[in-house]
Amino acid sequence: MKILITPLFAALLFFSLPVNSAAADFSLSAGGGGLIGYTFTRYTLEGGNVTSTQNMDRLDYAGFLFFDATYAEFSVMLKNGSSTYQENMIYSVASLADGTGTGSERSIGLSLMGKYPFTINEKISWFPMFGAEYHITLMQRRQPDGNLVYDRSKGQLTEDRDKDGNPYPLSAWNSFWINIGAGLDYNFFGPLFLRSELLFGFRLPTSYEMGALEVVKNPPMNVSNPKLGGLTGTPNLKIAIGYRF
Hints:
By secondary structure, the protein is mainly beta. 9% of the residues lie in helices and 60% in strands. The protein is elongated and about 65 Å long.
């Protein structure tokens, strides 16, 4: 149900507007604002005698700058997140202890969104959006319940080491997203306007998650053809003040 919220919102808004709404004139603008969002991960790794599950829920918050050329929007953000997680692995007939705890992360996000504005009246315009976003990880930390806080790129936890037993580099948590949604501009006066965007993002598996497939191919598990399935998604609300040149 969560996956459908933003696409349905965009579709309903589109078809509820007059069919003769004219596209906005070309203009350049820039501005900045804040983001709040919720990210969830639900993954299952299966193969041979191994079944592993990963559940993560994270509150995201960010500050960002955007640059707009009417039909395209580029933005740069500094994003933080605080999460809770639960992991479990069953190997052969033995169920290993559940792993639970909290985590935090920080990243720089770069996004490029295509958009097509429609003018509703002299004050309001709206635009469907579709595009991509890339996050460069700056920090990844995890605190298992009742334990210390670990820098995940140091490899102090077993799950943060690759098939050769080496720590994953911080870049293993870099991520690529596909975003879809819609936005609304409200013109205050002169060149100033308020922008709001509601987006839903779908994340591709990270190098860290794909590395887990290689880990279980090696002893002692020796899984020949493991499969990784599931979804990471995030609804985000962005609010910003912009200036048209």
